[in-house]
Amino acid sequence: MTEMNKTWILRARPVGEVRESDLELVEAPLAPLNEGEVRARTIYLSLDPTNRIWMSDMDAYLPPVGLGDPMRGGGLGLVTESRFGGLEPGDIVNTGLAHWSLYNTLPGAGLAKMPQLPGVPLTAFMGPIGATGMTAYFGLMDIGKPKEGETVVVSAAAGAVGSMVGQIAKIQGCRVVGIAGSDDKCKWLVETAGFDAAINYKKEDVGAMLDKHCPNGIDINFENVGGEIMDTVIARLNDFSRMPLCGLISTYNATDPVPGPYNFANLLMRRTLVKGFIVIDYYPRFAEGIQQMAQWLMEGKLKFETDVVRGLENAPSSLSRLFEGKNLGKLVVQVSEEPNRS
Amino acid sequence: MTEMNKTWILRARPVGEVRESDLELVEAPLAPLNEGEVRARTIYLSLDPTNRIWMSDMDAYLPPVGLGDPMRGGGLGLVTESRFGGLEPGDIVNTGLAHWSLYNTLPGAGLAKMPQLPGVPLTAFMGPIGATGMTAYFGLMDIGKPKEGETVVVSAAAGAVGSMVGQIAKIQGCRVVGIAGSDDKCKWLVETAGFDAAINYKKEDVGAMLDKHCPNGIDINFENVGGEIMDTVIARLNDFSRMPLCGLISTYNATDPVPGPYNFANLLMRRTLVKGFIVIDYYPRFAEGIQQMAQWLMEGKLKFETDVVRGLENAPSSLSRLFEGKNLGKLVVQVSEEPNRS
């Protein structure tokens, strides 16, 4: 009996929020492997704000997913079959830019096998030592260039990227203020992740709270959100400040043109450096980033959370958790069980 | 008989365009010099877009000029009296951040004496080898980092800064497209300054013309203007493009909040580097910039124009030439005659 695969197909370009009818879960039999290929059963599928970008027909950093094509996505997979010399069943790999599928069939060359690190759960490879951790690490270290004693503000601070940015900045000796959307998140940021302060933008006056918590102004704004919050932070930047531009999640569902920051002129006055980046730009340096983050992780210096939704069938509906700010830490869909690795 | 000085005093914060009633020309007797001071009679007073910023009570890169205080400005002055060892009557100095005055009384220490360069008129010290030239040189070379074969777009291209940016970019082997506000300016840019193309934004569809003249996209946007033109350029930036943020002249007279670029998200998608800068940040490196620009100038590689208005009394009313785009090249007020230096 041929085993069946399940794949989410993009059927329509979402207008505003993604509706379930924009995608369709399709079953199809698995084809036999070709030489050099491996088959990986998805354990964790990564859900990220950028998924929404890929669904839109806009001039983004990657071509959009075509209508009728499998939805692009990746995560961790368990190798179940292999016709590639370097990988065998039971190995766990990062599937990279694959599909929202139960099984992905991939060229074995270039697939990264996940090592087993003492005391580090598999989900860390979706967080601090995965793509979101690398986003935080390179965006902050390479663009932000934090110096001891500086003040760092990060938006979407309790998300997978933001929570790492703040903790890396603390390791660098910075004052760190996070902006997040609930009291629970703010409590986690300060009490668990060690941020100096956190602002609940849904309840507090962000400008007034930034004035309070950043008495020496803001040297680095790690931007994940855009919109009004970004504007409020830009108004408080110091001379020669830096702004790694990582994401603009508040705008991805927009159906009308979104104005840029009203305080754009302050980027001139403050001589701010703004630099857009996408984590894949840093792929050649991932080894460096993963080594450093893994070390901090094993030293207990990085706390992380994983927001787990179960079942591939729940992938599209779960994406909204990111846009509604429901997730604490890395949002993943658990598609199949973790293997016993002990 | 004590000689009289004339100084423009800022009386009111302009709302929108500067009106003559916002300033007052006041006469007062010159005080005797103190030890270490020199007195310089202004030959050329520099008029620059940033003068408008200094008149506003905004959080800019320098404190605003106080109401009742002399208007800030500088240019070239002829030393008429000196109690400073290194300078003597007849020397020509750059007065730096002095006043809109017939005479400025300045500490001699740190005043730069202008050398005599073969075949180079004095007005070059207001242009290519003055502050505007340094703005162009460092903004383009240090932030833009042009590479041979890249495409550079510059707005306010026929202005003092823009015209130098384009010519320096040509020397670096780039394709250069200028955006300016009249057919005469566009003609000068292409026929005299050697730009590859120029777009008259008052008559042409800037987006369509950029598409035509930048078939390989835009690698560097040297931004002087802001507003709709900036947005149109940002939409056409290439991956890993750079945007030296030098000025936003279209917004300086605004009385309402000005939205940032609607294509702000493209800075993320294209991984663009945006860097605000003010030429005074580069003061420690001026010698390097002046040496290079002077060499190119003497080699005949830099063409420049000076837009000369005569009479200190015309300074406030002439500032509008910048905002209406009437000047070709560096706008100066000739306050007194050049000395005979042959």
TrEMBL record, chains A, B:
Domain Enoyl reductase (ER): 19-333
Stored Pfam families: ADH_N_2, ADH_zinc_N
SUPFAM superfamilies membership: GroES-like, NAD(P)-binding Rossmann-fold domains
Tree of life domain: Bacteria
InterPro entries in UniProt: ADH-like_C, ADH_N_2, ER, GroES-like_sf, MDR_fam, NAD(P)-bd_dom_sf
Keyword annotations: Oxidoreductase
GO MF annotation, one: oxidoreductase activity, acting on the CH-CH group of donors, NAD or NADP as acceptor
PANTHER family in alphabetical order: PROSTAGLANDIN REDUCTASE (PTHR43205), PROSTAGLANDIN REDUCTASE 1 (PTHR43205:SF7)
Name this protein carries in UniProt: NADP-dependent oxidoreductase
Organism: Hyphomonas chukchiensis
